[in-house]
Amino acid sequence: MSGEVASLIPTLSRAGEGARRARLGLLLPLLALAACQPAEKAEAPPVRPVLYTVAKPVDAVMFGPFAGTVEPRYQSQLGFQIGGRVVARDVTMGDIVRKGQRLAALDPIVPRYALVRAEADVADARAQAENAGATEARTRRLMEGGNVTQAQLDGAVANRDTAQARLAQAQSSLEKARDQMGYTELKADFDGVVTQRSAEVGQVLSAGQAVVTVARPEAREAVVDIPEDLAGAMPKDGRFRVALQSAPEVTTLGRVREVAPFADQTTRTRRIRMTLENPPTAFRLGATITVSLERPVESRFPLPATALLTADGQDSVWIVNAAGTGVTRRPVTVAERGPERVAISSGLSAGERVVVAGVHSLSEGQTVRLSDESL
Description:
By secondary structure, this protein is α+β, with helices and mostly antiparallel strands. The protein is 29% helix and 37% strand. The protein has helices at 2-36, 109-144, 150-182, 228-231; strands spanning 48-50, 52-54, 58-72, 75-79, 84-89, 96-97, 102-106, 185-187, 192-197, 204-205, 210-215, 220-227, 239-244, 251-259, 269-277, 288-304, 309-311, 314-320, 327-331, 333-337, 341-346, 353-355, 368-370. Strand 18 and strand 19 (327-331) form a beta hairpin.
């Protein structure tokens, strides 16, 4: 029995050695494959492309520009005082008219009939008044002779007074008919220019309906509509620069005369009227203009609002280094804030590059790549 065990020992030894050789044969290819691959490099921080702007100081701010028009300060809508059919319109838009010049006319047939009737009523009332006066005089003489009673005399006096009152009434109606006959012609009340026509020949108008609009050209003003959120920041005592859009070199100055108390419900703008100071003749009524105001301020750096980073109550911006490869966070002082623009009063120097996009995703010293164009 001991001999059989002794004979099995070399066999088991050879089996264990074979297993080790098999495992070694599997491990050697893996080691060879690992040796063939290069060593992995350390992961580099990501390079962020950034959009930037160059800090440029300004010592003046511009309010505007806003588009507007030249309009008259005084203008009137003229119409007939009576109704009727238009038979003539002598002027059109842009015509210069003089005081007393006829602008339009109504059909005079109906007012002429009324005038003839009023004249006849006056003649009838005058005849009755004369007859009543003569009757009263005869009755008074008879009364003195005791041939009539006091009641008869009082009746004659009453008839005389009534006839005279009717005569006065008829004369007033005649004056009214004559005035209405004159109302068939619409005439200018002052020298001016026609800015609008509202009626045409053949149209039937009611009393007071506008026919033409006449403006006084000697008093011109600039009219602009300013967004409601900017109207409060507008300096009321400033002298605005007003320029023609068709000829920007032609300018004048304007002062605020009137600010609309309420904003337009559709456009949410307020209408501003400015008195023009000695405007050139090129500032014709209806001309399109541009209104702006430049005010001196302490030196500041205007930036897009997206460049500002606010954290823990501190405002800061990201500055690109001179090499253009990294960014540094720098605290700044904001002089003015707006929905789209901010003004930095301190913390920047002229010529520095300021990141204007993605400021919340940058970190101190981060490697960046500048865009080809700056804002």
